[in-house]
Amino acid sequence: MQIQIPYGKGFISFDTSECLLLDIIKPSEMHQSERAESLINHALDNPLGSDTLSSIVKPGDRVAIVVDDYTRPCPTRVILPLVLSRLHDAGVDDSEVLILIANGTHKPPTHSQIIEILGERIANGYQVKSNDCFKGDHVYVGTSKQGNRIEVLRDYVESDVKILLGDIEYHYFAGYGGTRKSILPGLSSYSCIQSNHKLLFDKNARTGILKNNPIHYEMNEAMHLAGVDFVLNVVLNSHNQIVGAWAGNPELVLDAGVKLVDMMYKKIVNEPSDLVVVSASGYPHDMDLYQSFKGLHSVLPVVNKNGVIVFTAECVNGAGNNVYLDWLKKYRSSSDIKKELQKEFVMGAHKAYYHLEAIENYNVIFVSSIKHDEVKNIYRFIPADSIDNALKEAYKIIGEDTPMRVVPYGSTTLLYLKN
Q1: Structural domain that includes position 126
Q2: Are 279 and 5 spatial neighbours (Cβ–Cβ below 8 Å)?
Q3: pLDDT digits 0-9 by tens, 284-327
Q4: pTM for this structure?
Q5: 351: domain CATH number?
Q6: Whether residue 226 sits in one domain with residue 156
């Protein structure tokens, strides 16, 4: 039988016999039941725990709207025009609206990337600024309960009305993306992000966990210290269709989104396997290895130690993060990296920690556009130019009769072992 999995902006396929297929774990996805615009307008008309946007703003207000950057699948080009229309109807002049791109530690987008995020009319017709975590004008808004200084972009903090747009999906140490992540890390300074992410070694800083998650708690604190008036977040299926939308109070919006994400993507597995084929869910999740790693990380709980993971991610932008790359080159073990990060946390190096921890416990065969020498010598994966060839290598390691588990959407699926 032939199986297709996402790769870049398309799919790649491989052949296997049914007797060697343990299972294919796919999301229990919803499909878009009505036009995306209708879902967004319904959310805007019926906010959770909040007045409507038109009741919050008034003529003369300086309005900041925060949107996701180019590494996130949020359909900003669909959402933003509907929000701008509400502001216009409420008497807010276009010149009083500032669109802020929440880059976090990512490189600020080029003008062409801004057009891709916002659409040409909005990109050229409104004030648009991107967060630069190193050089941006960040101001102190308070100290978190963890004792960390919270520093957020001045343009946002000094706005009269503050609106956050984004999508809710799994995040492997904040629990979930969405709402508060637009501020921390989205609009925060490097030192602030660094202090927050240093908390990732806490046992509760895990994918799909909000309770007692110190990273989530501090992100939420930062959002309220900086101020927030209105949130609009969506949940997407694997085809990047909007299947849920909520507006209003950030906590209520996040709670609603989390419930839908778990309903679609949280999967319980009865027992681990020795062989898993996993995709990083395709574009934009697999633009680079830094982002794609979430797909590999998601299947680790359901693979036996020393088992084989066939990992596919196109990675047209290579590593995607120089710190991540440098630390992989410099350190030979995850324990060495952990010691260094506990002394001084460095953004990007945490991915190198997760990376080395994975290859110390599992055999990873990597199908990507990255050169084989680089895959082997820098990332220390086993390179393969197709899934079929990767499976041939896998069977050499664990035996030809080993059944496989297939996870086509690793970056968006949360796998748990039963009990």
Answers
A1: 36-263
A2: yes
A3: 899 999 999 989 999 999 999 999 999 999 999 999 999 999 99
A4: 0.84
A5: 3.90.226.30
A6: yes
Q: Give me the mean pLDDT over the 26-51 stretch.
A: 93
If asked whether residues 327 and 380 sit together in one domain, one would say yes
Signed CA dihedral, 32, 257, 285, 276: sign only:
negative
pLDDT recorded at residue 70 = 86
CA 107 to chain centre: 15
C-alpha 379/C-alpha 313 separation (Å) is: 13
Domain boundary among the residues 217, 239, 263 is at: 263
278 band by pLDDT with thresholds 50, 70 and 90:
very high
| Biggest CA-to-CA distance, the chain | 70
Taken in order 272, 324, 316, 395, the sign of the CA dihedral is negative
Distance CA 395, CA 381 (A): 16
Same domain, 406 and 353: yes
Calpha distance 37→77 (Å, rounded): 11
- String of b and e for 291-318 (b: at least 16 CB within 10 Å)? bbbbbbbbbbebbeeebbbbbbbbbebb
Residue 265 has pLDDT above 80, yes or no: yes
- Output phi, psi for 375, to 5 deg: -60, -45
Q: Give the CATH number of the domain where residue 88 resides.
A: 3.40.50.11440
Q: Which residues contact 217 (CB under 8 A, 6 or more apart)?
A: 145, 146
Say if residue 213 is in the same domain as residue 72.
yes
CA angle, 376 then 378 then 384, to 5°: 25
